């Protein structure tokens, strides 16, 4: 007896989106979350273009966009000007200001609506895995219990118990510096300032308070020592060279520039997603966004594996695709910090000049937000990339490409006037459509995450389509 098909540790952005994706595909899913309720403070405050594009493939972006605040550029560290998103490869050419806690609420509501069980106040303590299952011990503060599942996914943050217990390495570099964060009230003007010792102080406006970020003058002897208001006050006073009173602390914390990447995203029946798989310097404000990206990639692959329809090796493409993405994220965020620290060094000027050039600026925006994600480069420009949300006419009704993906299934989009690909419907859902934006395409095989697995160009027929279907959809009937 399995208590659940997939057990997820952690109800942050990664765990909640993954759970919703699995439940959408009919997979019984349970989340165990250590905290009895969501904390009152908020870490992140943005969704980037890539995350919005992905959420739109499930109909989840519009509501958030209506609530949030649009900014036409991507956050970046170390470069003087903004990274503009106008003309970037996205359906959402803006960053959305919205609290991480609000995104989590929306994802939690969706997960619950789809039948996910969320056990708050339950700490994952240990697990063992066999060839067939994972047996996990969770504790609710009073009692321990075991849960047997087919798979376990660690979405349990940077200090992931799941990662450690699975014996998965976390190579990388330790933090060289730490910054204090304080959500407080005070009379400081918004914006950055620099102290006489070169240390920076940021005062970021938040609703009803400010977020202060200041580098510590020396690494703490123990980074887990709780941050006090006195400590933050002393660091702020030193940087400013005067005393400005900090009041009403809502949240005091510390973060550093450590960068680490799990050596594997899968060990047997145990997988990792989000911060559990990678930590990096806080440049570009991408943590939530990358966590969502991981889960969106993993959800449909794990669901197909649990249901027994997955082609051989499908689940391992999660590591192949997202570990490589993790490597790029560490490189990008570390590069941003290095440029910031380089100051007037001539080598850093090169990147600044690239950022000042319109095409270079757009390329950097696409790299830092992950919009450049291409899992299988080569051939047609759409191949391996997230298919753009082009307008479509289906059975006389106007729709869009992203809408076809709301059910979380693969789609073979047939754009030929005669419906030449109809016979493939025995193996994969076929949607016959026309579009003004796709004259060089006869048909496209879309993975459930919207990435393009195959493109049929005029005159090429269905060459290569059977292989793509067998690779991404499964061993299903294909026309002979
Ligand atoms: C100060 C700060 C500002 C940030 N700003 C931004 C920003 O502007 N934009 C952005 O995109 N990102 C930002 N981030 C990063 C972002 O918050 C994280 O990258 C993101 O929350 C990662 O999501 P996750 O689901 O992987 O992990 P988490 O959100 O950390 O969720 C992990 C969950 O697992 C639970 N858990 C841990 N251990 C166990 C266990 N043993 N059993 C059960 N549950 C467990 C935890 O309680 C937690 O709820 C910021 C981070 C910080 C610290």
UniProtKB/TrEMBL annotation:
**What is the name listed in the Swiss-Prot or TrEMBL entry for this protein?**
FAD-dependent oxidoreductase
Give the source lineage, highest ranks first: Bacteria, Bacillati, Actinomycetota, Actinomycetes, Pseudonocardiales
Q: Name one GO molecular function term.
A: oxidoreductase activity, acting on paired donors, with incorporation or reduction of molecular oxygen, NAD(P)H as one donor, and incorporation of one atom of oxygen
Keywords recorded for this protein, A-Z: FAD, Flavoprotein
Q: Where is the FAD-binding domain?
A: 3-332
The protein's matches in Gene3D superfamilies, at most eight in alphabetical order, are given as: 3.30.70.2450, 3.40.30.120, FAD/NAD(P)-binding domain
InterPro entries (UniProt xref): FAD-bd, FAD/NAD-bd_sf, RIFMO-like
Sections of the chain in a coiled coil? none
Stored PANTHER family: BINDING MONOOXYGENASE, PUTATIVE (JCVI)-RELATED, TRK SYSTEM POTASSIUM UPTAKE PROTEIN
**Which cofactor does this sequence's record say it needs?**
FAD
């Amino acid at each position: 007896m399995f208590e659940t098909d997939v057990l997820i540790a952690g109800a942050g952005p990664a765990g909640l989106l993954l759970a919703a994706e699995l439940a959408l595909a009919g997979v019984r899913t349970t989340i165990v979350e250590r905290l009895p309720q969501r904390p009152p403070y908020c870490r992140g405050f943005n969704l980037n273009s890539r995350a919005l594009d992905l959420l739109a493939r499930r109909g989840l972006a519009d509501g958030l966009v209506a609530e949030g605040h649009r900014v036409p550029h991507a956050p970046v560290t170390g470069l003087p000007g903004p990274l503009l998103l106008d003309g970037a490869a996205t359906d959402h050419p803006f960053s959305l200001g919205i609290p991480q806690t609000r995104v989590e609420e929306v994802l939690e509501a969706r997960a619950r609506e789809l039948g996910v069980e969320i056990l708050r106040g339950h700490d994952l303590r240990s697990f063992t895995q066999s060839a067939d299952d994972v047996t996990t011990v969770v504790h609710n503060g009073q009692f321990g219990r075991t849960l047997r599942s087919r798979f376990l996914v660690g979405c349990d943050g940077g200090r992931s118990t799941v990662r450690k217990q699975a014996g998965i390495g976390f190579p990388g570099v330790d933090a060289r510096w730490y910054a204090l964060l304080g959500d407080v009230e005070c009379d400081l003007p918004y914006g950055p300032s620099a102290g006489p010792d070169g240390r920076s102080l940021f005062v970021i406006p938040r609703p009803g308070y400010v977020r202060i970020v200041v580098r510590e003058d020396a690494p703490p002897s123990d980074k887990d020592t709780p941050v006090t208001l006195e400590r933050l006050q002393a660091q702020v006073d030193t940087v400013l060279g005067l005393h400005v009173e900090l009041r009403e602390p809502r949240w005091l914390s510390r973060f550093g520039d450590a960068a680490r990447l799990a050596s594997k995203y899968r060990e047997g029946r145990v997988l990792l997603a989000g911060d559990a798989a990678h930590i990096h310097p806080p440049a570009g404000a991408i943590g939530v966004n990358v966590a969502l990206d991981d889960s969106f990639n993993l959800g449909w692959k794990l669901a197909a594996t649990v249901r027994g329809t997955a082609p051989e090796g499908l689940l391992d493409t999660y590591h192949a695709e997202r570990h490589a993405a993790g490597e790029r994220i560490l490189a990008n965020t570390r590069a941003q910090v290095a440029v910031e620290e380089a100051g007037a060094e001539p080598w850093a000027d090169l990147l600044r000049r690239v950022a000042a050039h319109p095409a270079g600026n757009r390329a950097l925006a696409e790299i830092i937000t992950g919009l450049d994600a291409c899992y299988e480069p080569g051939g047609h420009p759409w191949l391996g990339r997230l298919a753009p949300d082009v307008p479509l006419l289906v059975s006389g009704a106007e729709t869009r490409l992203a809408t076809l993906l709301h059910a979380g299934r693969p789609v073979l989009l047939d754009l030929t006037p005669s419906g030449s690909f109809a016979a493939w419907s025995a193996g994969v859902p076929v949607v016959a459509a026309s579009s003004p934006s796709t004259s060089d395409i006869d048909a496209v095989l879309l993975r459930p995450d919207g990435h393009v697995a195959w493109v049929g160009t005029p005159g090429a027929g269905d060459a290569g389509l059977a292989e793509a279907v067998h690779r991404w959809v499964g061993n299903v009937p294909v026309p002979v």
